Amino acid sequence: MRGLRASSLLLCGVVLIQLLAVQIDAQRPKTQWKTLSGFSPRVIARGGFSGLFPDSSLDAYNFAMQTSVLDAVLWCDLQLTKDGAGICFPDLTMSNASNVESVYPKGQSTYPVNGVPTPGWFTIDLSLRALTNVSLIRGILSRSDKFDGNGYTISTVQTVNKEMKPQGFWLNVQHDAFYAQHNLSMSNFLVSVTKTVIVDFISSPEVNFFRKIAGRFGREGPSFVFRFLEKEQFEPTTNRTYGSILSNLTFVKTFASGILVPKSYVLPLDDKQYLLPSTSLVQDAHKAGLEVFVSGFANDVDIAHDYSFDPVSEYLSFMDNGNFSVDGVLSDFPITASASVECFSHVARNATKQVDFLVISKNGASGDYPGCTNLAYEKAINDGADVIDCSVQMSSDGKPFCSSSIDLGNTTMVAQSPLRNRSTSVPEISSVNGIYTFTLTWPEIQTLTPAISNPYSSRFNMFRNPNERNSGKLLSLSEFLNLAKNSTTLSGVLISVENAAYLREMQGLDVVKAVLDALTETGYSNRTTTKVMIQSTNSSVLVDFKKQSQYETVYKVEETIRDILDSAIEDIKTFASAVVIGKSSVFPVVDGFVTGQTNVVERLQKSQLPVYVELFQNEFVSQPFDFFSDATVEINSYVTGPGINGTITEFPFTAARYRRNRCLASKETLSYMAPVQPGGLLEVVSPGSLPPAEAPNPVFTDADVTEPPLPPVTAKAPTPTPGTPSTTAPAPSGQTQLTLSLLLSVFAMVLASLLLM
């Protein structure tokens, strides 16, 4: 009964979304949609909200209804039990999405399915009563297992209908022929159940199934939808491939009013996961009088690189591309599908902003191009960023330039270049060797090929825009400032300065002076239209800038904190006009779940300090489960929840588009545009599955703010020219030294060559 209790919690409001938010059917005018009916595409929740809760559980269905458009359709994969009961379960075999193996360890059988011997635990071997002992669990291993202990029971079609009372109900019959072989009739069950349950859609990939049910439901019966599988697969009753059936849509129209196809039927991909030109399927089907529904939408799977890991962009490409609109989408995350239909469709890129916060880039649009390159900055500007940023590094000849890391090995292909032997040890900066910017001249750095950041490649095999992984060129600070100055849409630039003390003391480089000089040379010292913000984690750096200029200063809190003392806030206000904090300092996260909300944003804002939060990324693995693997849900929760003043993001387009979504203009909070309830998801996790408690994050104090003054610039000893004996002291940390082992190896090679002569 745990599942029913959890459902009650959902209904009582102890959930992620504020369930009391008013749901409004914001149907668009017919003329805006290029669907067959002219109305907005249907949102079909596959097994409910199966991207979060176990597929076909009552919580999954309940949550789908609470977070979706009012007329969302609940999808049930219909299976039959040994005694002919109809249940909602995602597959013919049960071991993948239930605990049937542990309940009935000897229950495995092998049956032919479409001619292929298939082992497993089949629904036809268990009665409905026997299934009461079986619980639903996650069916996709990459999803959270924290709800597996909730004891979700397997529900009948009648139970789902009675408990949910859906506006739309879809039954999918995947294996009619299999059940017929075992003397179980899907058609008889459907005719019987529709006497008490309103079924709006029935789908199947088997032609013969539709022949059997034709004429048995009357004129007011459900719509029939033929489901296409992969093009090379054979339809079992006609012995034709689905690809060949696709070429004869008039034949499909004789027994169905719609088709359900994989995404690739409409927008195919090449072998590198990039979009190819769209097919004419939707237009052809509409001409034949067929609605087109598309399956395979999920926020937590790989999608085309063109979408930059953003599921909303994917939905819009199917429903709002200017050429066609599909008639419905089958989704594991119906909240994203709902928001795409109602909030983001038919919204122009120059539409009025509905909410005001700064969109600040992180190394430009570094989720799409190598960070701090001309291409990354140009895309950030085109994508709607208000502020573009430059993390300033210094070359050995004193040139300030933009790079996300002081170690060029993290941002370029230097390790594969002729400069790969310039690696040095700088313990003041890192515990591992690196090829540091201050060991190369600016002309040398300009020869390097930039490299895109892939923060989730090693663990999750997720790669950003491979076709452009080495595109663009690094920019000097002056080039960056001129690029920004020529933009008509930017409101400011953010210049980040780190390692200033080390560079002054050990390398003889004054990054503060270099930045101020570049700003003056490019005309920013007299410019009032473009705001300049200087950011640092070192308070002394900001104090130095404040003494020498009138630019805004932004203090970055590196630590993840749970609170901040008044005395620390007062200290910050003496040298900074805004603060940057990490996401977890707003919503603490444990084991992938938000545990609550701090008051850090509120306290800083009460002291007139705007709060910018980083780092926002589109990859679903960067987000807690609470945000449903959707970067837009995450942004919405930070902006409409604690009310942050700006997002710092590697994907500026996602944040900029969010500000234009028309749902924010609604007088009522729509359920699919409500912020998450911090810690709400953990309320639905069974006690035995709760993550272990962790030590609380620290409180930020004035002692954390205080830094020693920046040291004066220490002249760096000149590097000896080749062949000239050095009489200077040993090189300071960070300078490449010719080691004894290298001298010996050179001597050995010379000696060997002499012996061979």
From TrEMBL:
Enzyme Commission number, as recorded: 3.1.4.46
Keywords (A to Z) from UniProt: Glycerol metabolism, Glycoprotein, Hydrolase, Signal
Reactions the enzyme catalyzes: a sn-glycero-3-phosphodiester + H2O = an alcohol + sn-glycerol 3-phosphate + H(+)
Uppermost EC category: hydrolase
Listed GO MF terms: glycerophosphodiester phosphodiesterase activity
Gene Ontology BP terms: glycerol metabolic process; lipid metabolic process
Protein name from the UniProt record: glycerophosphodiester phosphodiesterase
Organism, as annotated: Brassica napus
